[in-house]
Amino acid sequence: MSFRTTATDYVEDVSPGSGALPPRARHPASDARTLSLNGSWRFRLSPTADAQDDSFAAAGHDTGDWAEITVPGHWVLQGHGSPIYTNHLYPFPVDPPRVPTENPTGDHLRHFDLPADWPAEGGSVLRFDGVESCARVWLNGTDIGEFKGSRLPHEFAVGHLLKPAGNVLAVRVHQWSAGSYLEDQDQWWLPGIFRDVTLLHRPPGSVLDHFVLASYDHVEGLGTLRVDSDVDGRVVVPGLDIDVATGEPVTVPVRPWTAETPRLYDGTLVTEGERVPLRIGFRTVALDDGLIKVNGRAILFKGVNRHEWHPERGRALDPETMREDVLLMKRHNINAVRTSHYPPHPAFLDLCDEYGLWVIDECDLETHGFTEQAWRDNPVDDERWTPALLDRAARMVERDKNHPSVVVWSLGNEAGTGRGLTAMADWIRGRDGSRLIHYEGDPDCRDTDIYARMYAGHAEVERIGRGLDGGTHKRRGLPFILCEYAHAMGNGPGGIADYQRLFESYDRIQGGFVWEWIDHGIRDERYGFAYGGDFGEELHDGNFVCDGLLFPDRTPSPGLVEYKKVIEPVRIDGDGPAGTVRVTNGYDFADLSGLAFEWSFEVDGVSVESGALSVPALGPGDSADVKLPAPSADGRGAETRWTVRAVLAEGTAWGPRGHVVAWTQLPVSEHPLPRVAQTDGPVLGLRDITLGPAAFDARTGALRTIGGIDVTGLRLDVWRAPTDNDNGAHWQPDARHGPLWRGLGLHRMRHRLDAVELGDDALTVRTRVAPAGREAGLRTVYRWTSDGTRLRLTVSVAPEGAWTLPLPRLGIRLGLTGPADRAVWFGGGPGEAYPDTGSASMLGRWESSVEDLQTPYVRPQENGARADVRRAEIGGLRVEGEPAFWFTARRWTTEQLDAADHLTDLVPGDTVWINLDHGQQGIGSQSCGPGALPQYRLHAGPAEFSFVFSEIHD
Ligand code: GAL
């Protein structure tokens, strides 16, 4: 006899569910009553879907031993079970639509009374904004339905079941369901009721669904508004003198909505039973002449991919966090968001409308794990799943259709190709012809209006820009975007300035979206921030989940600072010695009237004079030449430059007055090289050799002291703790330098002493630096000279043997054992910079604690180098470079940094380790994209570089 319970069959059913109301527009609060059911709920976790019967849904169930849980929230982040991180592998056997018997199931219970004045007439709707991954719902013991589609809203009519007091809402949530096969996004698997739960009163004659159609005719300057509503009513927009019936178009002069000029008109949809506020943005999106145009102009996306993330609450985001994301984007010159890979909390789109961001709204659909089986059985090509796909498309489009910020619908991400996608696209086009359709996974663009790629290298992007990439006839006529590029994992991404140059050179390339906005690290006592594998997952993808421009706590990483500079909307060039500046407006719509321009004149990195620069309110694309004043300061004998900044002239909704939008630096006179006369000679003592202020070990020639400063371990250094981009991803076809460097042994170089030579005016130490087991080596000579107070070191490096790899770095390291808490330098700052990440590195005089010189990448790796340093001071020691150098200081060695898996593994020691680098290998973005471009690679070749050391006497 076989027996299997049937009560949970819905979990593995491919259908989207049953019992829910048809999807409709989500609008901000109307004047109808609502009751939030967020807050503390009772919670019980079971190991399987059928471990418990449904008696808990009835009133009076004994919940004495149940836990408390916060809704919205994920139970695995509230002490029940653990999160799992996989990139594309399903964390369960792939046998669609079946899921494992071990299926963590959370029963949630909420008791509530209706407010005393909750109207008796009319109906009520219970709304879930997001539940992962499958829920069954009971109200007062009655089963009202079940649903899948985690990041989509589901509403149920419940008026007939409500009581004034003592209502029992029971929600059973299963972690795994057939729906999980459609939700294989690269992120944590986080079950729970993670978005709001709300009871909405629906007065008689209230609005059901409504569709705001607000287009803009850029030739005539006219907007046309039509609000379709299932329930007739009137549309009132006082600011435009509009008062028309629903369904009736009206055309009036308006100011259009764009991401740069997000003009919204407040209106109201008035029906017999309800007043629904409208926020109307007039704009027309079109595919015109092979380009994405808004209001008649081609736009350039300067975008990011945004997953919803909070380091403690996961994807349960509060309004402040959403606003913070939007403000951070606006302040960093970002103008577009792809809501990878699901519709976000609806409040996020309200913010995009209000502050101005172009949005690609992406459906909650990814089946990436099927790539492991050559896409066999992929649900998007199996018509049994088509109703679920159409349900997802409809829930996204219906919910979000009234947002002017949404200019493109995306069918989903990495779901292969198939008839289901075509069905979705056809349905979307039929419902909303006013936007374009995106999907990256089909290179033939059968269903889309945009050719999109992810992680294509620079050369390929250029070919696409030139139209030399081939492809189907349809594709060749489409605009191109990089829906993902510049993989921001760990240190990097490198090469974004090179991409931006391509974007700005070819009309067909309409920009890109950096992958991704924020690291998904989970705050954790042991690790600082946890990543994949930290919860004992049997399958996981490690720190691939930490690949954002923000650290998990939303601190901007250097990558975001770099991106802000690269995409700045105003270009400032010029000629420093001539004192002329050319300003170009790079906005697509806005003029420059919102910006003020400032200049400062700097001598050796210190501003000695500053003032305002008058720049005309240039229109988009226009340029003007302006003259800088004659500087009154005489910078002779010093290094001088202009810094010109474009700042917000007045505070805006997203930034304070004075906020820097764009800047440039124009050199006037060059950095004079430090000169040290060779007046002293080395003197051999009993144990020491002395030379000017320095003492060396007589046997090894190792530097011991400079004046009163103890120095240890000064030697050539070529190793850096490989970055995620150095390591690359295992599927990368090209050379991945991190593993190759380690294979060669660059992390275990041996230093052979060949000679210590005392000359008349120099101490010369000859060495050969090489790894065991290899013939390749670096013949290295240290030549020390002094003028009595200063000490000059010239390092000469000559590679020997076969060097087929670039070097990670080339320079010296030394340890300071005395107190050295702060560094001051004249060079690039304030943040780190590497050869292909240095756009935002501003020359100046900077100061920082050693602690703050570290960039806290969630997985420790090379970080914190300051570029173009002319002079650095730390621990009483001054170092000047010829040429300028990269400066790094940390309280652990490179080897300790390399060995660390988490930030908490890094324990500060007493010695401050300093790297003074002549060269650094570029960063690239090979953790999921191309490596460092050839011009940023550090080839092993003969090199010579010098440093001048002196003790600072205050
Ligand atoms: C893409 C994918 C993203 C993410 C990224 C790598 O292929 O669409 O979801 O996995 O790669 O971080």
Automatic annotation (TrEMBL):
It catalyses: Hydrolysis of terminal non-reducing beta-D-galactose residues in beta-D-galactosides. Its EC number is 3.2.1.23. Keywords: Glycosidase, Hydrolase. Residues 1-32 are annotated as: Disordered. It comes from the Bacteria. Transmembrane segments: none annotated. Coiled coil: none annotated. Gene3D superfamilies: 2.70.98.10, Galactose-binding domain-like, Glycosidases, Immunoglobulins. One of its GO terms (molecular function) is hydrolase activity. Residues 690-950 form the Beta galactosidase small chain/ domain. It holds the Pfam family Bgal_small_N. Belongs to the glycosyl hydrolase 2 family. PANTHER family: BETA-GALACTOSIDASE. This is Beta-galactosidase. The lineage of its organism: Bacteria, Bacillati, Actinomycetota, Actinomycetes, Kitasatosporales.
